[in-house]
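Lab notebook, bench 4. Still working through the backlog of constructs that have no structural model yet. Next entry is a single chain of 323 residues. Request: give me the structure tokens for it.
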Amino acid sequence: MNGRGNGDSCQELRVLEKDLLRATKRLEKTENLLAWVMIQAEIDEIKDRIGWVLLDREEYEKGLAWYKSFSSSTQGEAKCNGMSRALIEMGCYDEARKVLEKGLKRFPESYVLWVSRGVLDQRLGYHLESFRCFQFALRFAPKGSSEALFNVSTALHELGHHEDATKVLEKLVEQYPYEPRFLVSLGGCRCDMGYPKEALKYYLRAKKEGYSSPGLYDGFYQAYRAMGLKKEALEMAEEGFREFPGIPDFYGDLAEAYFEMGWRKESREVLNEGLSRFPDDECLKDLDNTLDDPEIDPGTGNKPPLIGLIALLALIHKRASKK
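Model written out:
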């Protein structure tokens, strides 16, 4: 998620569709070969931008169909990149791999395709392979590309090389002090290294920029929890769940936060909902074992705010019933 509102993306999509229609009409009327080539290139660029807006809006099936319609001869690289991203987000990893292997065979120096391959390996938990893909991408990245370095830092983080990842991210934050993704990732590294108070500083800066993402709320939760601030951690877990429904991490965060407040019953209700929706999620299964361990003291907290808690649990049931 990029924190952009759905209304903004709707407006952008409408503008791009109008631009595409106008460019198509100009192409039909032109008789000059050079002008025709330039307008066609403009159309190809607009079509690619429309595809990315669809994917950003999480309309993956529509985005996949859109990219499949691209010409393999003139838009082959963009076609492979868009299709692979849609397939990755849809969980069709084998199909995505086939598309990327075919694309990289044809475009072996494609920055965007190496990045997509790295993202695929990252999703599958192949972090060393992901790191190598991002290293390849870095070779072919546009000059001064911050995204290439950012991808390398995420791979280093996943491999547990937090200090190396921190060095890369600090350099990026120095160059782009208002880029929230870099701030959130740097916060994650610092939190994993045992500096939650420092991590909180970066999360607050990102939120001040109006940024919203699952990683931001989970980062807030983990930092507050590490600092022993149970109430603040609970608030972030609840807010994250409301903002990003359907993500297993927030079922785990919320159940864990309730448990640490001493609210076993409420914790179990949330976790059971999460397990019913995501039965294969390893983190939820691990937490399930924790909640059943009678030797673990969940601690004590104030009584849960009954009205707010009932509303939140009702929201969980409502969202789960829609799936």
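Notes after review: Residues 232-323 form one domain. The chain is about 75% helix and 0% strand. Flag for follow-up if needed.
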